Amino acid sequence: MCGIAGIYHERADRSVDPDLLTRMNDAIAHRGPDGDGIYRTEGVGLAHRRLAIIDRAGGHQPLFNEDGSVAVTYNGEIYNFQELFEELRTRGHVFRTHCDTEAIVHAWEEWGEECVTRFRGMFAFAIWDSRQQTLFLGRDRLGIKPLHYAFLADGSVVFGSELKSVLAHPEVDRGLDLHATEDYFALGYVPDPKTIYRAVRKLAPAHTLCIRRGQPKAEPRPYWDVHFAETSTLSEADAAVELVERLREAVRIRLVSEVPLGAFLSGGVDSSAVVALMSQESGRVMDTCSIGFDDPAYDESNYAQQVAKLYNTRHAAETVSGDETDLVERLAGMFDEPFADSSAMPTYRVSELARRRVTVALSGDGGDELFAGYRRYRFHGYEEQARRLMPAPLRQPLFGLLGRTYPKLDWAPRMLRAKTTFQSVARDSVEGYFHGVSVIPDEMRQSLYSEKMRRDLGGYSAIEVFRAHADKAPVDDTVALAQYIDLKTWLPGDILTKVDRTSMAVALEVRVPMLDHHFVEWAATLPRSFRLRGKSGKAVLKKAFEPLLPNDILYRQKKGFSVPLASWFRGPLAERLRSAVLGPMMADSGLFDRAALKQLVDDHQSGRSDHAAVLWSLMSFESFLRQDGRAPGADLGYAA
Questions:
Q1: 3-class SS at 209?
Q2: What CA–CA distance (Å, rounded) separates 168 from 158?
Q3: What is the pLDDT of residues 390-446, one digit of tens each?
C-alpha cells in the first residue's frame, strides 16, 4: 500500500520541477513511511511513497520494464500477480523482482489499455510509456484505492492519491464546486467523479484515463460494470455452500504478506465471517481489533469478544468517547474535503489500534451492499409495493400531503416515525430512494442555504447523481437498483474513502475480500429472495455461515458502526458544535442562512428534535473550510 503523485506536461521539452514533485510526494508521506522514489523524464515526473508489504527488498518504485521505456507508480495489491507473471513470461517478458508492481508494466506492454481487465485486486496507478508518449491512469473496479487528477490551463496534468497532493501544485484552482457542495449536504460525501474543488476530479472506479501527447484532451473511459441479474440456477442451499468457498478463496489470496496481518472485528456478520475464514485458512493465531463506545446503546464490543474467543484470536479493544475534540479536527485533515460520516472516528481509532500490532488488516466491507444488509433496502422494497398498488396521480398528492403534515417524531418508537416514508412514497423510485438516504432532505437543505446559494445553484439538485447512475443501471429489480446506486456512490464515496483515509493516516493497509470482483459478479446473479427476505437482509450469507458462527452473531438486530452524536452534541461536544456551526467561518461563507443554522442548533440542544446527522455535516464542512486555509469571509471562488 502506498501513495502516488505525478506531473505531466504537454511539451516534452518542459522539465518537471523536482522540488514541486517532492512537495507533492511529501504531502502523502503518511501513506508510505518505508521509502520514496522520484522519476523525471521528458516533461513527466512520477513520485511514490512506499509501505512495503510484498518483496520488501526489491519492490521500490517507480518501477520499470526491461529497457526502462515504461515506468509505473502504483498503490494497491494485484492478488493474481503470480499467475500474470507466468503468462507474461511465456510471452517473452523478463521479471527482475517478485513484486506485484512489475506485473503492471509488462501487462501494459502486452495488452495496452485493456491491461486493467487482467488485474484482480485493488489499485490506482500511473504508467508513463516513453515510446508511445502516453500517460495511462487506472483505478480498480470498486474504487477501493483513490486517484485524483487535475488538468491545468496549459494542458498539463497533475495527479495524486489524495487531494492534498494535487493541491500542493500552485497552479491548481482551489475554487469550490457548487454542485459538489450541494451533493455533499445531500449525501454526506462528495460522490465520484467530483471533488469539492471545481478543477480537480476523482478517477471514478472501473475507469481509466489515457493521455497521449499531441492528441486532444482525453476523457475517462469505463472498463467494467456489475450486472444485477437473477441468472443463477442454484438452490439456496447450494448457493450457501458456494458462497463460503468463493469467499474463502477471496480471503486466502489476501493473506499473502511479508509483514504482520490481522483483521477488523466489529462483531457484525461480515467482519465475523471474514475472521472465521481467515482463522481457518491461515493456520495461525490471528490478531483482531475492535472499537466500542461508552454508550451501551451503540456498543457491540461484546459480540466481537465472542467471535474472538470462538476463533482464539489475539483480540484488542478500545472505547471511543465524545470528548475527543482533537480527533474531530484531525479528520478534516485526513479527508481534504467535507466528509460527514461520523463513523470515521471509530474507524480511525480501530486503524490506530490495529497498526500497533499489524501492517495489514482485512475488513468485512461490502457485505451490506452485495447482500442487501441495510435496513433501507427493505424499506425501499415496501415503498415500491405501495407505488405499484396506487397510480401516481392518486399516490403523489395523497402521500405528499401525509409527508407534509405528519409530525417529525424523532423521539418516538421507530414504527411511528413515518414522515420520511410518506415523503418517499410520494416520489418516484429513484427520487424516493434518494430521499430516504439523504443526510439533509431537500426541503431542509433549501432552508439552510442562503438566497444567493439557492440562486447560484440554478435548480441543480444532488438527485441528478442518482438519476445518472439509474439511467444506465444493468438491473432487473428495484432493490437491485438501490444496491447498484450504492455501489456507484455510497460505497466508493463514503465507505471505502473512510477506510482508505483513516487507515492510511497510520500507514495501515486494509484489504476487502467481499469486494473481490469475481465474488461481486457472482453475488449479483443471486435471486433477490437470497439477499432480502422478509425483515432480514443477507439471507444467504447468514445461512452460509451458520456452521461457522453462532446465531446471536448472525441473526441479532443490526446496529451498524454508528456514533452517539445526538447525546454528544448535548454534552461533551455542545460548545464545539455551537462555535463551529454559528461561528464566523460559516456565517461569512455566504452559503447559509444564519437564522436557520441557529434554529437547528437550538432545537437539537433543547431536545425538541434530533438533528445530529445534519449538525455533524455542518460542523464537518466548517472544519474543512478552516483546514483549507480560508479566512472568514474569504471568496470561496465557487462555480456551478
A1: strand
A2: 10
A3: 655 555 555 555 556 656 545 444 444 455 666 666 667 898 899 999 999 999 999
**DSSP string computed for 434-463:** HHHH-SS-HHHHHHHB-HHHHHHHTT--TH
pTM of the entire predicted model: 0.93
> Has residue 1 got a pLDDT over 70?
no
- Topology at the third CATH level for domain 236-372+489-554: Rossmann fold (3.40.50)
The domain over range 2-222 is classified in CATH as 3.60.20.10: yes
pLDDT score, position 415? 42
- The ranges assigned to domains in the chain are 2-222, 236-372+489-554, 375-486, 573-627
Q: How far is CA 92 from CA 88, 110, 112, 276, in A?
A: 7, 10, 16, 41
| Phi, psi dihedral angles at 568 (to 5 degrees) | -60, -40
**Least confident among 534-538, 582-586, 619-623:** 534-538
Per-residue pLDDT at 490 exceeds 90: yes
238-269 exposure pattern, b = at least 16 Cβ within 10 A, e = fewer: ebbebbbebbbbbbbbbbbeeeebbbbbbbbb
User: Per residue in 60-71, pLDDT tens?
Assistant: 899 999 999 999
CA 62 to chain centre: 26
The catalytic residue positions are: 2
**Cβ atoms of 407 and 417 closer than 8 Å:** no
Largest CA distance in the chain: 72
d(CA 203, CA 60): 25
Q: Are 527 and 476 in contact (CB under 8 A)?
A: no
pLDDT (mean) for 323-328 = 72
Per-position DSSP letters for 248-296, written without gaps between them: HHHHHGGG--SS-EEEE--SSHHHHHHHHHHHHHH-SPPEEEEEEESST
